[in-house]
C-alpha cells in the first residue's frame, strides 16, 4: 500500500480529486490485467520466498558448518522475506485481487501489514549493503581478520534495529478510509499510509530521508564496493606462481561477484521505478495523470518492487546435492547452500594461499 497524502475532508489521496468523483479503478481491462500480474507476483513470493527461505533457514539451524558470516547476513534477507511471504502477502492478495482494493481486516492489521512490509524492505537493503562490504573486505584485504562474533552480532542488530525505528511512521500513519466512487456508493475501504495535508512538509522530509538512507546511499556504497572488487579480481595479477588450484578459486570468486552484481542490478531495477513514481507523485503531482489507470500502474509497480525478494532467493539459494560437505551431518531432503556462502571454506584457504604466495615471492626476491 502506497505512501499517500490526504485531506481528510475535501480530497481523496494526493491527486486533488474530490471525494465524490473518485474514479473506480477496479473497472475495465487495465485493472483486470493488473490484478493478474499482482496475483502472480504475490503467489510467487509466497511460494518461492516462503518455501525456499524456510529451507535455507532450516539448513543453517541444522548444520553448524554453514553458519559463516556471509550466511548469517544472507539469513537476514531470508527472515525478512519469509515474514512478508507468510504474513503480508495473503492479506495483500485478498486486498488487491479478491476484494479489489477493499480492506476488511481492521485498522490493526492494516497498520501491521504496512509496517512489516516497510521493515522487510529496509532490512533487505541493509543486509545487501552488509554483504557487499563483507565481500569487499574479504577480497581486497584477505589477510585482515574477519569480524569477531560480537561485532557480527552488532552488525546484524543494526540491520534490524534501524528499520524497526525508521518504519514507525508507516504504522502510525496507516489508516482505513472508506471511499465512494462516482455515484456516491461507499462500498470499499482504502488501507494505506495517509499523511494529512497540513503535515506535507514532514512527509516530504521523511521521504527524502528514507530515499537517501535506504536507497541512494546503500546503492552507491554497494556499487563502489563491487567496482573495487571487479578491479581486484579481473584487472590485477595474482603475485607469485599461479597454480591450478589458485586459478580455480579465482574463477569461483569471480562467479560469486557476478551473482552479487546481478543481485544489485535486480534491486535497482525493481525499486527504482517505485521510488521514481513516489518522487513524481509527492513532489511533481502535475506530471502524473490523475485518471484511474495511473493508480493501477502504481499498484503494479509496487508489486514488481516486492518481487525483488524472489530474485534474491533464486540468486542466493541454490538447491543442489552437497553431499561432500554435509554427508557427516546426516541426511537432509534438500541440501541448501548459498551460492555465495558455499565459498566460505575457500576463503579461508585463499587467505592461507595468499600468505604462502606472498612469502614465497619475498623469498625468491631475497
Automatic annotation (TrEMBL):
One Pfam family cited in the UniProt record for this chain: 7tm_1
Residue spans crossing the bilayer: 31-57, 69-93, 121-140, 152-172, 206-227, 257-276, 296-319
SUPFAM superfamilies the UniProt entry points to: Family A G protein-coupled receptor-like
Membrane topology of the entry: Multi-pass membrane protein
UniProt family annotation: Belongs to the G-protein coupled receptor 1 family.
InterPro entries with a match to the protein in the record: GPCR_Rhodpsn, GPCR_Rhodpsn_7TM
UniProt keyword list: Cell membrane, Disulfide bond, G-protein coupled receptor, Glycoprotein, Membrane, Receptor, Transducer, Transmembrane, Transmembrane helix
Ranges in coiled-coil conformation: none
Protein name: Prokineticin receptor 1a
Keyword hit for Membrane: yes
UniProt-listed GO biological process terms: angiogenesis
Segments forming domain G-protein coupled receptors family 1 profile: 52-316
GO MF term set: neuropeptide receptor activity
Compartments in which it is found: Cell membrane
Highest taxon in the source lineage: Eukaryota
GO cellular component, one term: plasma membrane
Amino acid at each position: 500500500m502506497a505512501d499517500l497524502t490526504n485531506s481528510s475532508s475535501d480530497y481523496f489521496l494526493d491527486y486533488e480529486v474530490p471525494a465524490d468523483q473518485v474514479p473506480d479503478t477496479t473497472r475495465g481491462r487495465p485493472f483486470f490485467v493488473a490484478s493478474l500480474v499482482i496475483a502472480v507476483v504475490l503467489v510467487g513470493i509466497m511460494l518461492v520466498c516462503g518455501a525456499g527461505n524456510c529451507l535455507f533457514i532450516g539448513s543453517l539451524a541444522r548444520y553448524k558448518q554453514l553458519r559463516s558470516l556471509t550466511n548469517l547476513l544472507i539469513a537476514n534477507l531470508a527472515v525478512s522475506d519469509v515474514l512478508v511471504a507468510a504474513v503480508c502477502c495473503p492479506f495483500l492478495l485478498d486486498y488487491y485481487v479478491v476484494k479489489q482494493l477493499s480492506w476488511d481486516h481492521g485498522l490493526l492489521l492494516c497498520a501491521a501489514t504496512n509496517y512489516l512490509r516497510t521493515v522487510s524492505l529496509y532490512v533487505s537493503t541493509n543486509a545487501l549493503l552488509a554483504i557487499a562490504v563483507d565481500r569487499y573486505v574479504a577480497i581486497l584485504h584477505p589477510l585482515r581478520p574477519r569480524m569477531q562474533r560480537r561485532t557480527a552480532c552488532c552488525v546484524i542488530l543494526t540491520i534490524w534495529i534501524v528499520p524497526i525505528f525508521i518504519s514507525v511512521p508507516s504504522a502510525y500513519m496507516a489508516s482505513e478510509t472508506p471511499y465512494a466512487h462516482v455515484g456516491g456508493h461507499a462500498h470499499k475501504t482504502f488501507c494505506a499510509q495517509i499523511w494529512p495535508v497540513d503535515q506535507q512538509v514532514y512527509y516530504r522530509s521523511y521521504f527524502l530521508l528514507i530515499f537517501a538512507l535506504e536507497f541512494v546511499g546503500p546503492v552507491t556504497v554497494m556499487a563502489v564496493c563491487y567496482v573495487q572488487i571487479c578491479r581486484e579480481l579481473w584487472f590485477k595479477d595474482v603475485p607469485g606462481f599461479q597454480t591450478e588450484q589458485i586459478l580455480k578459486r579465482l574463477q569461483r570468486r569471480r562467479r560469486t561477484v557476478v551473482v552479487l552484481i546481478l543481485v544489485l542490478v535486480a534491486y535497482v531495477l525493481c525499486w527504482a521505478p517505485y521510488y521514481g513514481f513516489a518522487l513524481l507523485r509527492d513532489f511533481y503531482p502535475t506530471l502524473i495523470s490523475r485518471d484511474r489507470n495511473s493508480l493501477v500502474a502504481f499498484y503494479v509497480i509496487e508489486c514488481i518492487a516486492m518481487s525483488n525478494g524472489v530474485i534474491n532467493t533464486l540468486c542466493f539459494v541454490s538447491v543442489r546435492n552437497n553431499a561432500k560437505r554435509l554427508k557427516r551431518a546426516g541426511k537432509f531432503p534438500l541440501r541448501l547452500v548459498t551460492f555465495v556462502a558455499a565459498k566460505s571454506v575457500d576463503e579461508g584457504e585463499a587467505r592461507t594461499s595468499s600468505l604462502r604466495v606472498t612469502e614465497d615471492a619475498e623469498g625468491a626476491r631475497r
